[in-house]
Amino acid sequence: MPGKRLFIAVFLIPPLLLYGIFVVSPYAQAFQIAGTNWSGLSPTYDFVGLDNFQRLLSDGYFWNALRHNGLLLVLLPVVTILLGLFFASMISVGGRADRVGVHGVRGAGFYRVVYFFPQVLSVAIVGVLWKEMYAPHTGMVNGFLRAVGLDGLAVAWLGDPRFSFWCVMAVMIWMNVGFYVVLFSAAMQSIPRDLYEAALLDGAGRLTTLVRLTVPLVWDTIQVAWVYLAIIAIDGFAIVQIITDGGPSSSSDVVGLRLYKTAFADGQFGYASAIGVAMFFLTLTVAAMFLRVTRRERVEL
Q1: pLDDT by residue (tens digit) across 151-174?
Q2: Which residue of 4, 53, 158, 278 is surrounded by the most CB atoms within 10 Å?
Q3: 60-94 b/e (C-beta count within 10 Å ≥ 16 → b)
Q4: Alpha-carbon dihedral 221, 226, 228, 231, rounded to 10 degrees
Q5: How far apart are CA 226 and CA 176, in angstroms?
Q6: CATH 3.30.70.1290: does it fit domain 60-293?
Q7: What pTM does this model have?
């Protein structure tokens, strides 16, 4: 028994130490710095207590960014999961039943590759790609609109405060939906085909089968996807910074980008850490709330 404990300790202690140094320690330091007016470069600073958090309550830029994160939090998981479930169901069980039973549409393997393709691209590549596609004169979006005779709809998408945020949201949906198509497809493979054949014999349509049969049986996977997408929605820093940098006029700003600019552009690391602490608790709260709200009884096969 002592030898077994020593064996476990040898393999557990080093990774736990690394995790504590490089993950837990920075979080703890952020809490400490949030109570100071540190500029990020000066060796001296003063403790200001909760002043940074009080400042958050009246910071219009912060609340504007938080409102955008709230919209992402509501719309990004819902749209991405709905699209992912629809495409996954078509790929897995959307074909016509024949002698080999229920199966996906023809070319399902090819569609999986197409949907998953954005996942092999880095966020930087995706951001630069779509920034060029939204370009007012040379971009593919306006080029397509002009080609089909809709010249009046060709606008400066990223330069117009009415559209910039929604353009970024569309990109975030596009870059995430493929992963959840593959994830939901894998979950659907574990569902016995006999259930789909029985639903087909009972006259259930594709939508009814998806809602009444598939969704309850893959609910655990949907729940995990919801939490991950909620975390992505609360962050959203990288793609926003690359495509719009929060503009124009902060119309596409998010909290992560506001934190970055406060720290590295304004030199207010203490206040930026307070924003980070607020994001930390917001993320924990949202994750716990989603797990609580979406909890339901497991369906056993």
Answers
A1: 888 999 999 999 999 999 999 999
A2: 158
A3: eebebbbebbeebbeebbebbbebbbbbbbbbbbb
A4: -170
A5: 12
A6: no
A7: 0.86
